[in-house]
TrEMBL record:
Record EC number: 6.3.2.2
Superkingdom of origin organism: Eukaryota
Name used for this protein in its record: Glutamate--cysteine ligase
Keywords, alphabetical: ATP-binding, Glutathione biosynthesis, Ligase, Nucleotide-binding
InterPro entries from the UniProt entry: GCS, Gln_synth/guanido_kin_cat_dom, LRR_dom_sf
ATP-binding listed as a keyword: yes
Catalytic activity line of the entry: L-cysteine + L-glutamate + ATP = gamma-L-glutamyl-L-cysteine + ADP + phosphate + H(+)
Gene Ontology MF terms: ATP binding; glutamate-cysteine ligase activity
Pathway participation: Sulfur metabolism; glutathione biosynthesis; glutathione from L-cysteine and L-glutamate: step 1/2
Gene Ontology BP annotations: glutathione biosynthetic process
One CC-aspect GO term: glutamate-cysteine ligase complex
Family from the record: Belongs to the glutamate--cysteine ligase type 3 family.
Matches recorded under Pfam families: GCS
Amino acid sequence: MPPNKSVLSLSDLSLQWIVIFVHETLQRLSKSNNAENQKNAVDDLFQTIPCSFYSNFVDVLFTKIIREKSVLPCKYYNYISGIFNRHLRELSLSDCNLFQDSSSVLEEFLTSSNQPVSNCKSLKIYKNVMALLDFDPLKLTHTLSSYFPNISVMIVQGLPSELDRWEVLNFIKKLVANSPFIQCLDLSGSNIDDKTCEIIGSSLNALHTLQLNNCLLTSAGVSNLLKNKNLVRLDCLRGIENLVRMVITSSDFKNQVIQRGIYDITKILIFSNIPLHIVNHPNYVKFFKKRKTEAHDRNKIVLKFAIGTSGYCKFCYRRILKIFCEYETKKLADHVHEHGITQFINSYEKLKHRHGDDLKWGDEVEYFIIKFKHSSQEARVCLKAMELLSILQKPKIRGDKDLNSIWVPEYAAYMVEGTPGVPYGGGSISQFNRIEANMKMRRNEVRALLEDDESILSITNFPRLGCSKFTYPEIFPLPESEITRSLFWPDAAIYPSHPRFKTLSRNIRERRGEKVAIDLPIFKDKYTEEVLKNDPGYIDGKEGHVHCDAMGFGMGMCCLQVTFQATNVDEARILYDQLAPLCPILLALTAATPTCRGYLVDRDCRWDTISASVDCRTQEERGLLPLSTDKFVIPKSRYDSIIYDKDIYEKLIDNQIDTLLAKHISHLFIRDPISVFSEKVHQDDNKETDHFENIQSTNWQTMRFKIPPVDPKIGWRVEFRPCEIQFTDFENSSIVCFVVLLTRTILTKVYFRINIADSDAPPEIEELTIHEIFNGTSEFEFPGLISLIKSYLSNQNVETDTMCTLCNYLHFIERRASTELITNAKFIREFILDHPDYKQDSVISERINYDLLIEIDKITDGVLKK
């Protein structure tokens, strides 16, 4: 069905402009003396609001009405209160210029409706707004129970400071009586005593998150809070330091050092938002046993502390570092460049003759965690990566040997990355039989930790990433205050426990001077144009494109990567050079990304998105302004090919680095660092390589040439990075095995020309299809990559079962290259286009998204075939 033609297009207005527009219109309408005309005008006005704006619009406008009494006379509220009752999700009153009688405005607005605001589940009152609203605690709880019956999140940061602990206690008692099902409560800065803690711990049984930052708590008070069996997160920034000093006597808060390292993990402490594992320190255990807290309850609780921005924790032997902001980082750019190049030169000189390392390889598989809402047929990304990793990483932290898998965080809070516990290799072809089994085992490790309505999917992109309510729990972006400043991507979707991810997001935006701009051409269907004009990103994006504005749209995708260890530096360079031309071919073969922010797009791969998502170039570097403060006009993003720094090139040449390698390194170093740790500024350039790796690791390209690290067990490596993740472990293991076998074939047949007979003639270059490249062509007498690999295998001593496995993998690659088997991108596109809910408008609805992911989940489990 076509979109409703009666809806006025507001394509040239962003959310904030729509609010201002409606706000001013309401003021003009309020001056009319004809009540019926007013009502009709309001109905028409609200019909102009695009559905995609509606919920956020209602929240913003409602808050604006409450903030400014002069918006409308109170008689007018009953005309629009019904609209707010249906759509208001969150009422947020921050520190604003409120009139002293604004409470009567709120009261008038709420009482004008015959029904409560049933859809509003979050009430946020910051700082001393309650005092300005003239709300006493009893009146607040009465308002809460009367007009907001379904509140599950309540943030009252700073009950009026003049309230003594008895008044706060009475407020909590009233809250328990009127709203016993609150799940999240923030009473930071309030006068909390032991009795109040006891009531919270024993009566708010649905409470799972409690924030009491800057509250003076006693050990008895904390013990009372912990009586709540459902409590999983307790934030007590600063106020609990004395308690920790008492129970962990080896803590040195002044120097921010934990003195003693111990074993079995039971807690996560967060030091300035950097999570670290805390273990069964005897005094800590004694503290909990004394208060009769069972072990399984202790394991659920997350205590959050603030003790500074840097230090060292021996609980998990991991540094806590301050990361510089972009301004500070920029001042260190020359220092990082100078010492980074020196570190490379020193390392290369020491390691260039290293030889004889075993041929090893390993894969990196990234996964989405998905929450299904079967009753409403919706799917969300599930923000529980930190919770999962706290369990998955236990064996490695304990120092267990012979690990089957290693787990690390990724950019997004809904992603996890798994690798084999030890690299494959050792000269045995039989290792190829282990890859798929290990991938299945990794997937099952995570699956065992998930709820019944959750799943782990190896998909490149979540189709509705960045749409309204795409996260679980439901979190909305705050473009005015968050790091990304995104209209679509909340900071909470960034993995919270590693400071690097948020720092990269902030520093890229600050260095660029504006938000990143990701614009993908939309897939044009019959009604696409009308829908796109009402999209929130329309005003900032290119015409006919889907606009995204945050790093998470690229870094929040998943991929498949393979790393190889070479025998020596020359072999690593051969692999790098020979695999580089195959990157776009493998990218096309594994294409799996035809969606972006709830739309079908005219792309099948993630590369344009991820390239733009990390584009930190200034306007000068992009050629939009003449060069003044910057050195280069850089035609492409960090995720692409780039020019080189001639001064650094000359320095490398002067230190006997050959021309080709000097150009490779110097083109990496035209980039400034975008993340610098405070304690990593000054290094021993003969022993450390952090400055070099700082630049190297933030040039995200399809291939990466990796020098040996400080660990003497690891040699020269090459990382192959273009492949998109596939639905099934069979597909992913097929691609890994193909790429690894291709490296073996390359090293066996280094030189290959299609006109070998005439050695004096120049090499012939022909345009071939992917089918011809993989499966060969008789026209040019090119056997194809698959035939070359099979020829290599025929000269190896391969066991029968391993050969059978490899033949199945190669047969899959043959069929995918010939288009007999469609790519995941084509499968997704056809599924969406054929779905009965599809309206020929390029939109991926909630129902389409849900059905698609259910289908992929069944394919992953082998219940269905593509």
